[in-house]
Design a protein that fits this description.
73 residues, single chain, 2 helices, mainly alpha
Length: 73
């Protein structure tokens, strides 16, 4: 493969530049894959998220009860 780019990384051969074609192909593949490379399905974490929400509700409720016991009427 010949180098068809100048020192600034700009292609000098227009659309026929193999480096430009490679970059366009990589961008197309990333778009087709939906940019999900390395990301998991959010539904897999739904049960853990719900458990964390319940735990947070109990902690906030407990702190509220303690605050009412200390400063309440």
């Amino acid at each position: 493969m010949t180098n068809c780019c100048n020192a600034n990384g700009e292609c000098t051969q227009g659309r026929d530049c193999p480096i430009r074609k490679q970059r366009a192909q990589e961008a197309n593949e990333a778009y087709i894959k939906g940019f999900l490379m390395g990301q998991e399905d959010p539904l897999d974490d739904l049960a853990d998220t719900f458990k964390a929400l319940i735990a947070l509700m109990f902690v906030v409720g407990g702190l509220t009860m303690i605050a009412f016991a200390i400063w309440g009427k």
